[in-house]
Amino acid sequence: MEKVTRKFRIKVKCHLKLKRLAGKVFNLTSAYDAAISRFLLDEEYPKYLNVSYEKKFDLRYGENPHQTSAYYVSTTEEGSMKDFCPAEWKGTVI
Q1: Backbone angles phi, psi at 31, to 5 degrees
Q2: Closest CA to 88 of 64, 60, 69
């Protein structure tokens, strides 16, 4: 029984790792597809709006202290906050 349980755990770990890797691949592919679509269409107001944002860093907390948060920037647009550098307080990003 222990052998079966061990094999099952190994399969579950492999499945979860493959699922995570597949998610990363689809995430990157969708950003790439959005960039190509935007370039080829070159429309101001396309029927479907595809946007892509890249996570730059985690923030200390969200709107409330018990919530998590992260800072994202557009991969296709320029903006004043694109090169934003976070302040540090108590050794962590605010």
Answers
A1: -65, -40
A2: 60
The model's pLDDT over 62-89, given as tens digits with 9 standing for 90+, comes to 788 888 888 888 887 777 677 777 666 5
pTM tops 0.85: no
- The answer to whether residues 52 and 76 touch, using CB atoms and an 8 Å cutoff, is yes
Residue with tokens 């969200």: 62
- Residue 91: pLDDT over 70: no
Q: Which long-range contacts (CB under 8 A, 24 or more apart) does 25-34 make?
A: 31/75, 34/76
Contact 54, 35 (CB under 8 A): no
Residue with tokens 């694109």: 82
